Amino acid sequence: MQPTHILLLIAGYFGILLLISYFTGKNADNDSFFKANRQSPWYIVAFGMIGASLSGVTFISVPGWIETSQFSYMQVVFGYILGYAVIGTVLLPLYYKLNLTSIYTYLDERFGNYSYKTGASFFLLSRVVGASFRLFLVANVLQAILFDALHVPFWVTVIITILLIWLYTFKSGIKTIVWTDTLQTLFMLIAVGVAIYYVADDLGIQGSNLMGYIIDSDLSKMFFFDDIKNANYFWKQFLSGAFIAIVMTGLDQDMMQKNLTCRSLKDAQKNMFWFTIVLTFVNFVFLGLGLLLTQYAAQNGIDAHKDQLFPVIATKSGLGFGIAIFFVLGLIAAAYSSADSALTSLTTSFSIDILDLEKKYSPEDQIKTRKKIHVLFSLILILVIIAFKYIIRDESVIAKLFVFAGYTYGPLLGLYAFGLFTKLNVKDRLVPIIAILSPILSYIISVNSSTWFGFEFGFFILILNGFLTFLGLILIRRK
Length: 479
What we know:
479 residues; 77% helix
């Protein structure tokens, strides 16, 4: 696949996104940017959320997990189902009842201003690091297969990428993203389907026999009940999946902002129901692709593993132009379906939660200030991604930063659990201290857990983090 082909593909792709932005951006105001005027069809939101949930990390990484983890990730996905049920029956009714623009406003009403600002700040930190990591991962792949050949420096690639995202989101924000995410999800799923077709065909697997081939493979083992100390133990992953869904969807402004654009609570709940079903199936498909790619690499002597498995086979294995072009299309879609909504949610949270935009600014100043914040976070994402490339360099350290960003969701879990399931009040000024100490203590316990307890936390660390926050809030309760 020639660099010119990829460049034309990217240009055409962003041309479509800009066209969508043009039509959705007519007569746009802050209500359009933050809530899409609460007019989004629930089925469009549900389908678009698939792409935002998967992201470039899933598109590249999940197929590469099969070699070492088999289908154990489905244990986490089954946990998601429980978590999404909690979101639909507990959190969404709360958000719609309070008519929230930012979901962290709940913390202000329940505990006070310090808790409110703490929750929003932890989200901002998590989303900046997480979105930057996802874009960094994908930008590296695009740099290797395209921009290096064109002698374009990495920092220029990053600036162009963020600029393009800014261009189609700056006017109507979430109103545009609801529709662009739908398109990007479609492209991503087509890319996976095309890849399965090409690889299965080369392996001599007929379509009707594909499911049987996957089920009969030793790599498709899904449930692990043998060793409770292992990170792949079923109940550890299942419960972690439930809490990951609650926190990284239900307590995440990025994901919930899309749900809150639905016309009513009933529509938002229908959205979550169908989103859950489709996402479960799509994750299984990704793992099935990973199994086929692993078998293909073994049979053809391809030395590619983990994050390199899918990109190398799609672009350099000789399977043909079709799989390469759809891989690039899916990769772009996966990257930007999460990055555009991240930029919009960061703008929303900082505007509403930190600056109190709707309370302290006139209608004219609200729009001007929101636009400035949108530019500010675009610059922040550029700087963080470039720092990953040129300052930190060690990719294992960058991966740990992404993991640490997950730690910052623990305090949100503890705060919301305490608020929803107790009637206790807390000393609001002390909440930031508890929120900072809990992830630090969780990290120390996680690092030493194998030595101290002979136990690997894995995804389970989120639950520990939330529990420590909950316990800390009990200690600072008002008597």
